[in-house]
Amino acid sequence: MNLSPPRGTRDFYPEDMRLRTWLFGHFREVARLFGFQEYDAPVVESAELYVRKAGEEIVDQLYTFQDKSNRDLALRPEMTPSLARMVLQKGGALGLPIKWFSLPQCWRYERMTRGRRREHFQWNLDIFGVTDVTAEAELLAALVTLFQRLGLGAGDIAIRLSNRRLLQAVLADAGVADTLFAPVCVLIDKLEKIPRETVEAELQNLGVDSGVIDRVLQVASCTSLHEAQGLVGSGDNGLDEIQRLMDLGAAYGFADWLRFDPSLVRGLAYYTGTVFEAFATRGELRAICGGGRYDRLLSTFGGKDVAACGFGFGDAVIVELLKDQGLLPDLPAAVDDVVFAFSEELREPAMQVTRSLRAAGRSVDLILEAGKRMKSAFRHADGAGAARLVLLAPEEWARGVVKVRDLVSGEEHEVTPEELAS
After folding, report:
1. Which of 42, 57, 168, 247 is most buried, taking the most CB atoms under 10 A from its CB?
2. pTM strictly above 0.85
């Protein structure tokens, strides 16, 4: 029998869980600092929830199956559709703005690379009901706060900014119909990942002249907002929003983390305005996180649209980056006390001592095999990362005391069970 987990998935042994709990603790604390409320949803959703516009890559990456009632279901590949469903389900009962966050496990059947798995956990922050880019500024401030808590600075991480309306203006100027915008975005987003010839061929299949790529690449190579403005001219191209977001970033104190990058597209069809990605400035890791504005998401599911923006932040890439930077913490197993009974007759007193310690709020590991050698008790306490070893020996217990060994200082003393708990 193959004892490995399914390809692309992970086991979390206790040491792995300690790291995961540490990272999730930072996610939750940053969300709390910024006033976001946590929510969750089923890991299994109707497959229809994820089937949007034709050609969207995520549809081909779904883990789908039928239940016993022949309903088409899928493991969630991302959280945003579930969030949209939940917001629509409440209708107008939810007061705006909404600031919610989640830490879901997500599943995508895709090619694996370092930091990219077929299952991962994702930190999601979303804001509904704010039309201004102050919402995006709040999201980016939360991102920067998280990076700083993890020991990363502006020299380690850059946040790329663009706006989907910039690409839309370029495509409209080239005569590309609005109905083709979403599938063309998906293809343009692949330019860094697959050969240009392949992208051109797929564009031609959509009826789009491959020369459009030259125009897109011309704008994508701009290094400043002024240069981009000169190429696309005036109109609704999103450049004013990018400038305002950069100004807000300066006011918030994270301007040096931001980079204008018109080559950024983000392939998901529901983005409507600002898009952003955070990436490591050194090494070959993929984007750490990405997000943007999606003001027309709710109408995709038959509801009334509400202004919204958000991001998803995977757990796998950031762990790889922290490993590269030597920033992963040492998180040994740790309990306050290990309790050891020298004999079977002292098992019940040991249980009583353990219960009183736990009632006092201390974490306690009771050695379940009474009568073992002292050497094994010390080995057990060392493996548990205990601060103290509490010993119940016949002679001491007859005098109404237990022996306590401080495993940090090596000091040993006798106390009554009542004194021990207090």
Report:
1. 168
2. yes
